Structures are given as C-alpha cells and as structure tokens.
Amino acid sequence: MQPSRRPSSGAPRARVVVLEARRGDARRDRLERWARARRTRGRAWVLPCDTETGGVWAGVEEWIRDLLPELESRAPDLFVAHDGELTHVVPALRTRVRPRHVSLTDAASADEAVRNYAADRVRRIPHGLIDLLSAWHARAGRGRWAVACDDFDRRGAVAGQLFRHLVRRRGAEMGLTLVLAVEPGAGERTAREFAPYARVHRVRLHVPGGPEPRVDPDEAARSAGEMEAWVKRDTLHMRMHAHTLARLWAQAGRPERVTYWRMAELGMLTQLGYYEDAARHAAAVEADLARFDRADAPYSRAAVVNKLYTVYLTVGRVTDARDVLQREGLDVLTVPEERAHALYQMAMLHARFLPARDLPLAERCLRDALAEIERAELEPADRHFHTVFLLNGLAYVRVRQGRPADATEMTLDNFARLDDHLPPERHRLHRSVLLYNAAQVAAQNGEHETALRYLGDAMAMDPDYSEYYNDRGSIHLKLGRLDEAEADYRRAIELSAPYVEVWHNLGQCLSRAGRAAEAEAAYERAVDLDPERAQAWAALAALRRAQGRSEAALEAYDAAVATDPKNPFVLANRAALRLELGDPDGGLADLDRAVALAPGHPGLLRNRAIALAALEGVPA
Predict the structure, then answer these.
(1) What is the DSSP letter of 209?
(2) Which domains does the chain have, with CATH numbers?
(3) Which residue from 176, 121, 247 is spatially nearest to 11, judged by alpha carbons?
(4) What's the CA gap between 450 and 363, in Å, rounded?
(5) What are the tens digits of pLDDT across the range 353-409?
(6) What is the layout of strands, in order, in the sheet containing 15-20?
C-alpha cells in the first residue's frame, strides 16, 4: 500500500505514459507534436532531461525557467517564499536573487566547510517545488497540465524524485499527464516507479533512432578552452557549466580534462548535498585517480579521496568508503594534514558507520591524526583549528563510550580554544557545530536547560539553520513549553524546504495543546510529504480516534501498519480500535501478530486475553 492523496469522486486523475522509443530527432518530434495538441486544452511542455547536456536539474530547470516570468510578475509572494528552491534549480538566478535564508553551511568557504548536509536535505527541494507548482497551478486557473520528459532514463536522481512526488502528491488534483520517453528496455522499470501513484500506460513506438551528432574534435576543444577560461573564474559558473565542459572535452578526445571536470562536478554536487547525483561520476573519477598526483592537477589526491569517501558513505556504500579511504588515501598520502583528515574519517567509520563498531580503533586513529598535526608545518591558528576538529571527533567517541560528561567538557574546551586562538570571523561554522554538539550531549543526558543554552548560542551564530530550531522545539516540547516549541517549529518550517520531521513534531505540539484540527493538518502534511512515515500515520490515527472518528482513524492505522508491519504497538492500537468497532476477529489477528513480534510483553498479552474473552463471550 502506498498512501497518498485520493482524488474526490469525479476529480481528474494523474496519468503517466511511459513511451519506449529510440532516442533521437524522430522521438523528440513526436513529443513536440503531442505537446502542441495538448496546448489547445491547457498547458504543455517538452523537457530535455539528459543530465549530460543539462546538468543535475535537466528538464526541471527548463520548466521552471519558462514559469519564472509569470511567477515574478503575477505571484511575487510565491517567488519570494520559494527563493531557496528556485535558486537551486536555476543557479543563474543567484546573479540577481539572494535567498532570504542562508546558513553558515551554505555560506562556508571550502576550507571552513566542516559540515556535510544530511542526505535528506536535497530531497526537500522537490517538495518545495511541488508546493510552488501546485500553488501557481491553482492561481493560474487550474487548467490541465501536460509534461513530456525526453530522455527520462538519463535524468538526474533529484529530478526523478520531483516527478515521482509531483504525481503522488498533486498529480490528481492538477489533472496532470506525464509522458516519460525512455530507450527500449527501460520502460518496465520506469513504469514501476509510478505505478503506485497513477494510471500508468506503456507505449512502444517504432521510430528511427538518430545517431549522436558528429562533433569536430578540434572545434570541441576550441569551444571547451574558451569556456573553461571564463568558467574557472567564478564558482557559480563552474556549477552551471561543469557538465558542459566534461562533454565538450570528451568530444575533443581529451580524457584528462574530462576527468578534471567530472571531479569538479562531483565536488560541487557533494558540497551541495546532491550525493546520489554525485555518485554517477564516482567510478570514473576513482578509476582515473592517478591523474590527480600531477603537480599541475587542479585538485589534490586528498581532496578527491575526501569527496569520494563522502559520496560513498552518504549513498550507503560504507565498505566502498572505507576501501577508497584506505587504498587511495592512507596507503598513499604523505602530507601530515592530509593524512590527519583521512585518519579522522577512518575513525568516524569505525565509531559510527560500519556495521561492527570498534571504538578503541577509532580512538587510535584519532590519536594518530593528532600526532600528524603535531608534525605538520602549519600556522598556529591552523594548527589549533585542526587539533580542535580532531578532538571533536574524540568527543564523539567519548559519547559512544558512555562518557557524556567528558565529551561535554572536551567540546567546551575546544570552543574556548578557537575563541582564544582564532579571530572571531574565522570558522564560525565549526564553532556553532561545537555548541550544537554540546547541546546534543546535554539533551541526551537529560540536562535540558543546559542544552537550550548551548543551542541558543549556536543559533545566535547561525540563525538560519532550520534543524537547530526543530531540535530546540523538541526540547521545549519535552519540558511542556508548548508556545516556545510551536514558535521554534514554525521558524524551522520557514527556514527550509518542507521536511517531514518538523511537521510531525508540530503536530505533536498542537495535539498536546488541545488544538486538534491544527494538529491533524500538521500530521496530514507530514504524511503527504512522506507516506512511508508510520509514526506520523499512527499519531494521526490516535488523534482521530480521540475525536471519535473511528473509520478515519482506522484508515490511518491501516496506512501505519502497511508502512511498518513489524511494529507491535501500532498493531495493538489498531486492534483496540477494531475491537471498539465490533471486529474481534480483526482485533485478535492484530494482537496475535503483535505478541509474536514482542513475546512476553505484559500489556500485549493482557490485551490479547481480553480480545479472546470477548470473542468467546467470557468476561475478561
């Protein structure tokens, strides 16, 4: 079961057509003719989705560019409200639009970027865009929209998420028709992606495939050289054109330049949090890693290994992260500060990410890293920074060792050391991270007021980081300070594209405040963003049940069980509701499953005994 919004009776439904045909001009011509016909009844677009020619947002960027003039002139409030998402998808906007909310993680220079974005951060952007598209569709008259995606099998990962979530969340109410053109053989996989959310039709079209346009290598080299000269002067231009330069150098037959620009794209995507899209380049870059040992290489081996490690780790390839770090990093690197950073990463693997944790080994890695920093030729301020960075890793190990007081003391000492030895404008991000880490340790240790103080200090340094407000709101919620919690949750929502955790937390806060209708809306928003979030479905079910809306509660419990069928307590709650509704067989079946999942739990055993007694007509 894939819960999603259900259209009311008679409402238009989303329709997805998977078109299998050889790529080329003939297929593109068919899509253009289809779009022209659709424009007689609404709006239609044909979007080129090949990342090799359009970058990570290929197709989506063209769509948003087409809508921008209307948004700016007729819906400036929507344009401003979604400036963060828009400037991600259309980077050129940053030449004239600065997003309202820029955290230190966004703004940190490469040498101060000590925090990687969580993997879900970029996944929020499609949801913000969907909110924007849905709102504009409503204002523009709710006509039917039709979108054809050419080369959908060559799309970026995050662009694919946008179209899937658009169909699931708003496809029905927008009466959306989506045509996805893919190569023969790719249709079944594409159809499976959308089948839970829409009517999916597969069509095979026999058209002649077009050969790749022949490009003169000398002309490609000339174009690449001219573009490279001005692109390298500006980080924004590099972000916008790295994929084009990689393609041009490939056409020119210059593999060494292709590798460098693939690395440039991988590095920028990693820094922005686009890990799945960055992973597309990882194998080619790793295979050609020896090129980065040259003195004139634009990136060092250490920098490349660092990015590969981060990508592999974040997409769940933990063993690959360890192997590349050891084989291409620690076994080869000789510069002390580069070895120190690789040892830090190895320590985190053993303390946090590998299936079998090895805290003594993690600590040895960090001690070795500190020794490397001692022998490195560094300016005093840089030596202090690197030392503090490594000691922060050791503080994490102390937490894992069950020594939170030592971890807190170490973290605060680290913060004081930065204050004593670095000017206040340097490494503000790392300082805020240290305070945040101290707050997390204090919160885990039940020292809530201390945690709030540290969080407040971190937020004063980095006031636009949404997660700080979400975490502080949750501490306020534990302390029963509902007004403060609500204010923090709403600020967290304002500072970020939508994410499910903060809406679920807001629902809990509003429910405890007795504001049932608002709490239900918050929970519904949470499951709209992520219908696989069983906890939010269960909270929604409990709220509806408390209001006496048993059938609606049962629907939410069904969704919770479908997304987390091995949660005995969700099963037990659904069982109780089924018993109330006069369904003892269903209630007993749920309790049987719950007891099997948590044998010996006294509450579940008692509830099952009550259900058995009710079924047999015997007083419990």
Answers:
(1) P
(2) 15-204 (3.40.50), 465-549 (1.25.40.10), 565-620 (no CATH)
(3) 176
(4) 27
(5) 999 999 999 999 999 999 999 999 999 999 999 999 999 999 999 999 999 999 999
(6) 42-48, 144-150, 177-182, 15-20, 199-204
